Amino acid sequence: MTAATKLSWAFREQGLTDPLVLAHLLAQLAHESGLVPREENLHYRAERLMQVWPTRFRTLAAARACAGNPERLANTVYGGRMGNTQPGDGWRFRGRGLIQLTGRSNYETYGRLVGFDLVANPDLLLQYGVGALVAGAYWNARGLSRHALRDDVTHVTEGINGGRNGLEDRRLLAVAKRQVGLR
Q1: Helix (H, G, I), strand (E, B) or coil at 101
Q2: Count of alpha carbons within 13 Å of 11, Cβ hemisphere only?
Q3: Which helix (H) or strand (E) holds 39?
């Protein structure tokens, strides 16, 4: 089965068939992962760490301690939150998949929703089928179709990542829907 076939199958399994909803979902996934299931890239320079996580890295010295060390960075920025309670959970449950699912709680919740033990096997998110099922379940759990049907990229983006990171890129990607005759 091709990647496109797996995406199509998974989205149908999650009840995501409306063309406008799919256009918005694909735009978000294109921004999050380039439509390729992958691990979060945690290779940052110290200066960039201070921009991305300003509350975690208030000084250049603190940022330098994690720069170039993805495991230490993940444990620093994700440890003790999102259900990450065990040493090493930040790294173990870093962003993965098409949607960049992050945190033990999300791995538990969405693994249960799609029928895979993502806590024991986090790398399953790197498979197209599992990654697409999880992306669809995440979308549905957050009720993002209602925003997509209103063509509201801002609220869809906030539902995906909790903020407006990459909003302009996501907006440009969503414009692709016009190229296929959608609103």
Answers
A1: strand
A2: 19
A3: strand 38-39
